[in-house]
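Instructor's aside before we start: the two examples that follow are unrelated to each other. I chose them only because their records fit on one page, so don't look for a connection. First example below.
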Amino acid sequence: MTTAFVLGGGGVLGAVEVGMLRALLERDIRPDLVLGTSIGALNGAMVARDPTLGVIERLTDLWHAADGSRDVYGEWALRTVSRAVRSGTHIYSPEPLKKRLYNELGDVQFEDLPVPLQVCAANIERAAEHWFTTGPVVEAVIASAAVPGLLPPAEIDGEHYLDGGIVNSIPVGRAAALGATRIFVLQVGRIDRPLTAPKRPWEVARVSFEIARRHRFVRELSELPEGVVAHVLPAAGTSAKDDSLLAHRDFSGIAHRIESTYAAAVAYLDEHLS
């Protein structure tokens, strides 16, 4: 049996994946393969480097530090407007996120990780889904998390990348294609909420993205080969307010999201794996 952890995107809601990871690792469920997109790439890189319960404390500290400082998306409004005017493409600097990642992961390479890791990003020049499997892990995570409009495209070896959620937000099909026979899907809860028609201009892009994301995920789940089992772990502590225009800046409630999702994941695993 080959076990894969698939960690999907979702910005600040990615904190719920820490609760899921704790529930899995407490049951001594370890991955043979980790795939991550956007914030899932960050969480996935951490667990691929340390697939033990010890990583939960480091992830929890990392998320609480983000809550305390809010430096990733916490700049003054005037500064973000100024950057948007100057760049024409983004409102936040990628430097705070880079600093945090280098503090945690340093110069670690994919080849150094004890568990194979793959990170998804959207390649601009090739208009294609790209999977990082070699080289510096931090560069790949930055590329995978380059949210359009919020952060600038990441440049690697002369090509540019945007958030992997554009092309493959929850890569369950990729895990099966790589030989996984048991897949644990760590998702942030958005796929569970009903969609309604947009009423404001900024809601149009969000709803459009959600349709594309959910359509691919549901299709890939239905097309899993015989003998492949996927467990979609439940997220808790999230709601429709997390889809608001400025929700990407709201790191409050992280502890509640982690703990409530941990409880939900434990209940799920007790029911389905007992």
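Example two begins here.
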Amino acid sequence: MDDQKKIKKYFCSVCGYEYDHEQGDPDGGIGPGTPFENLPDDWLCPICGATKIMFEEVN
């Protein structure tokens, strides 16, 4: 198993939304395949509007 190819998952600590890198956030201008780490710093949760720093990594 190659750990470098493992994509981390993140969820919003405010509303529980889980960012899916495979889908991206088309309404927010984020294309499919975009890892969470590559989202712009001003990206907001599409459900509740929380900032990126309010997201936590899923283990």
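The CA atoms of residues 9 and 20 lie 7 Å apart.
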